[in-house]
Structures are given as structure tokens and as C-alpha cells.
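Morning run. Coffee first, then this:
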Amino acid sequence: MGRASVCDGKSSIESRELLVPCVFPQTYQFVLLNAPPLPNAPSYQLSQMNEPDSAADRESAAGGQQFTANDAEPVVKYQPLTPAQKLDIFYRSTYDPFTFLSVAFDAGIAHAEGDFRGYGGGMPGYGKRFGAILADNEASIFFSRFLFPWMFKQDPRYFRMEKGPIPKRAVYAISRVVVTRTDDGGSSFNTSTVLGRLVGTTLANCYYPAERRGTWPTLRRTGDSLTSEATMALAREFWPDIRNSLLGRRLPRRVSGLADKMVTGK
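And here it is:
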């Protein structure tokens, strides 16, 4: 098995002093205020490997678990995320500018196509679409990246395979929708993602227009959401190769950084 690294990034919590919005319960405030920084992105790699190309790759290689070619014995102990670090993944998404830009774009497309007809037209209609899509996004991240990973002791990050035939890596990436790493370093059914997406789309029945509510619309949205999750897994698996091998120095550093953030969420 090739090297795998995580693409959910390291924490923005650089110290123990953090102002937490009052929207979180007091329990979560205490957890965040006392949260240690997220560990460097874990990396699963062959015992014989080349020097990482970029600073991000070197940081990833320095911080994670390393396995021999047959994955028999770890060289560096795997470090799962703590509950506070899992909560931080959700917390950071609530103020990430890319979250709002993405939601604004999706709401604009839905508005232009007349989707969510029950919300009407004009700026009020656009505002309702924006709010609904934002709520969908935040609910999905809350359940699939924090609450259920904490409850089921699963790691919400994506581990890249990095090396191997392209078809094998593609199958691996897509399979991460239903297979995930547990906090003890094993593998299990990805209850966090599947159940998190289902719960998030079910809650949407509380604020969606009447024509978008019901069992079948909910199941259809869940399927679409899991398909999007598979697409993002493919992007996380192959984007570093595209950036380093195909684009190389031709891609400006600022553009490369923006693309990294859009793909990996860092």
C-alpha cells in the first residue's frame, strides 16, 4: 500500500487562547479553550521513499504514521484527532470565507435556474436559497466531521494513497465514502459520512419548500451528497499530482494556494 496523507488540514488553533462564539454550549466552549493544536497531517508511506517536493509535503511526511511496504509495523505511532480537534474542523468552516463564497455561487446557480421555486424570486428568494444551502453545508460538516466521528471514534480526515496505478488510487478514493479509518488505526464502515449526510438532508425538510420535502427527495439528496463526497475524494487524491507534475512552476504560488484550500479545505 502506498503512502497516505490527510487532507483535512491542521488546526487554526495555535494557542490555548481562543474566543469562542456564544452559539456553542458552555461545554464546547471549555473543550475549545483547552484544545491542543491539531497534529500534523498523518502520512502512510513506504520505508523507501523520495524526498518530499514541497514544504507542505515535507510537513506532512514529518508528522504522521509511517508503514513499511507490507503495512506490517508502524514506524511512528498514528495520532488520532481528539474530540476538541474534530470540533475545530467544524468550527473553522463556520468562518471560512470559501464556505460563504461557495454557498453564494451555488445559491446564484439555483436562483438562476429557478430551483427551490417555493422561495420565490428577487433578492428575498436568493436570500432564502443562500440560507438553505448554508444550513445544508454546516449541518453536513457538523454531523459528518465532528459529532458522528466523535461518537463512533472515527477519523474524519482523508488519507491519500499517493502511489500506485491510477485506477487503483481512484477506486481507493471513491471507497473512502463508505470506508474510513478508526481512532485506533483500523478500518470500518464510514458511519460518520453516510449517516451524517442522511441526517443533514433529513433536517433540510424543516426549511425546504414543500416540493423538496419527503422521503424520496431526501434519499435523492443524500445520494447526490455522497456522490459529491466521492468527487472531492478524487480531487484530494489526485490534485497534488496535477499541481506538482503537470502544472509545476507554471502555476503561480497564490493560485496554487487557493486551489489547495478549495480542494483540501486547509
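The radius of gyration is 19 Å. Good start to the day.
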